[in-house]
Known about the structure:
- By secondary structure, this protein is α+β, with helices and mostly antiparallel strands.
- 44% of the residues lie in helices and 25% in strands.
- A 4-stranded antiparallel sheet has the order 1-8-3-6.
- Residues 12-131 form the Cyclic nucleotide-binding domain.
- It holds the Pfam family cNMP_binding.
Amino acid sequence: xxxxxxxxxxxxxxxxxxxxxxxxxxxxxxxxxxxxxxxxxxxxxxxxxxxxxxxxxxxxxxxxxxxxxxxxxxxxxxxxxxxxxxxxxxxxxxxxxxxxxxxxxxxxxxxxxxxxxxxxxxxxxxxxxxxxxxxxxxxxxxxxxxxxxxxxxxxxxxxxxxxxxxxxxxxxxxxxxxxxxxxxxxxxxxxxxxxxxxxxxxxxxxxxxxxxxxxxxxxxxxxxxxx
Length: 227
């Protein structure tokens, strides 16, 4: 991957120096995972940070025989940073929702780079605070109607990872149980709301391609209270 493409793909690196980017690319390791494959396991010690080149993953926490999806991430995002920063075992695991291409950078090399490049260090802090704010928003919305919660989730995912097309903003068709868990609503509520949005042609679903296209993103954002 070229340095310019690397910087444009990952917002974390858009303020990093060219020397930092060149060094990170030289030590990055490529990984490929098929759909439903575990990428990282809970309780494993953090030894690398992972960057999503393509595809979608979910972060989940296990409790006995049950798993709770905490977040869904797509192209341009990263994960695994918490375990290397506090030098502790991972508290969650990561599973591929689709075929996924990743780059990993070892914990030692990544931390060394953070100390050497203050711009990268600052940018990472900004993005971690942004994630914390997203979780706070989810907490504040716990008493909102299911439709508003789901609209908020769809808009956030589309704005973060969606691809602009002639029909609208296209994203991965996240399984309804995962979508329900990150929206804090039931699977049945998720299914009914999606069906209603589809009947109104606010969203288009291509199940063969596992894609969900938000045709009327502005209306969904209005429903979510974003505009």
